[in-house]
Write a structure and sequence with these properties.
It is a single chain. Helix content is 25%, strand content 15%. By secondary structure, it is of the alpha+beta class. Among the domains are: 58 residues, no CATH class; 31 residues, no CATH class. The longest helix is centred in the last third of the chain and has 16 residues. The chain starts with a helix and ends in a 20-residue tail after the last helix.
């Protein structure tokens, strides 16, 4: 309808507006109940590896369901074990599992290089004194930024 026709026929213009410009409320695909077991959506970057699961392996139980405040907002869900955060139905997926499954694969033992790095980092952490005040922190020497102690690391120049 053109603006000129809308001015001449205001009743038809209002009918046209109601017909095409009202928001349609789409119902939530799934409303969870208190006590349902769900998994959380994992936040991933756009370029993250695709073999990483979309939902967590940990299973949560719904503790509280908040009704929508108006007709265009959905239900909000609070989960047991997660404080001060609510989730929408897009963040959750219902599961039949009642507990988190433990991985059946045993942990691989650390190889020689991993053990060496772990020991050297532990020694390095023990040898560095922690400053107690800002003055002590400012007067402390710079920390080396490497993983192996036998690698020489050039010190930064003070400006």
């Amino acid at each position: 309808m053109t603006p000129h026709k809308a001015i001449e026929h205001p009743h038809e213009a209002l009918v046209n507006l109601r017909k095409y410009w009202t928001k349609e409320k789409k119902p939530e695909p799934e409303v969870f109940k208190v006590g349902d077991h769900v998994r959380l959506r994992v936040d991933k970057n756009t370029f993250a590896k695709s073999h990483v699961a979309n939902f967590s392996s940990h299973v949560y139980k719904i503790q509280y369901v908040a009704n929508p405040k108006d007709e265009f907002k959905g239900h909000r869900y609070r989960l047991e074990g997660i404080k001060n955060r609510t989730f929408t139905f897009n963040d959750l997926i219902k599961t039949s599992a009642k507990q988190t499954e433990q991985s059946s694969r045993p942990k691989r033992p650390k190889d020689r290089l991993q053990k060496q790095v772990e020991n050297e980092l532990r020694e390095l952490d023990a040898s560095i004194m922690k400053p107690r005040t800002r003055l002590q922190k400012r007067n402390m020497p710079l920390k080396p930024k490497g993983t192996f102690l036998h690698v020489e690391i050039p010190k930064r120049k003070k400006i």
